Amino acid sequence: MLSSTLLSLLLGLVPAAIAQSPQYVLANHPHAQNIPTVHHSAIQARRILNLSSIATLSTVFPEDQSTTLLENRPLHLGGSPIGLIDYYASCDPTPHNPIILAISIATSFKNARAGSSVTLSLRYHPPFDHPPAHDIYTYSPANLPRFSLLGYIESVPASEISRYQMDRCFFDKHPDAVAWKPGNAIHQSWWARLVVQQVYWIGGFGDRAYIGWIPVEEWRGVSQEEVKNARLAGEHGYEKAAAST
Known about the structure:
Layout: H1 4-12, H2 16-19, H3 38-51, E1 54-60, E2 81-87, E3 99-103, H4 107-113, E4 118-123, E5 146-155, H5 158-164, H6 166-173, E6 189-202, E7 211-214, H7 216-221, H8 224-229, H9 238-244
Antiparallel strand pairs: 1-2, 1-4, 3-6, 4-5, 5-6, 6-7
């Protein structure tokens, strides 16, 4: 058994950052204070949607096995989920419903056409030139925001794409995607939109960030001005923004 004096000395060597470990990781602490509001969390999520342009698109294989042999799929995939990386862009006039350049031959869009619901999962990546942290948790992936958008895929009419220049918005984020725009000689493609119906958010550790569902009205109601002015950990001006919230 360690003496109380020796134990105290050993504890004194533990960095404060490690000693101040999170009390709740995947749920909100029942007595936590200064947890961001649902609306502020919605702003953060919309900020991430705006900053990023690549996410994991998840769908479910249909129970109908009629194409299994044709596509050389394993048997009994019906009901199994699959998540694949895809490009997206947050564009006017509905920046809360991301635009996707769908490839007809891609598994995700085959599943969507067969009736699968769709989930787009994102996480925040701090800037490469972010300032140093005061503790080991500030930039810990477990403490950084991530969320999922649940909904369905709909086709976007060419007239709407042209009117709001959605294609330019998308190609500004993904210049290489011009090669497979609708009408290309490689694959059949079409403009799609993820219509968001539900939002699940994990803002970080549960004793300092909101964890839970964000009502879709709250998600849609975030203004572009709020998105523009928001700052996340590692972004220039974050401390000032956090202090004034």
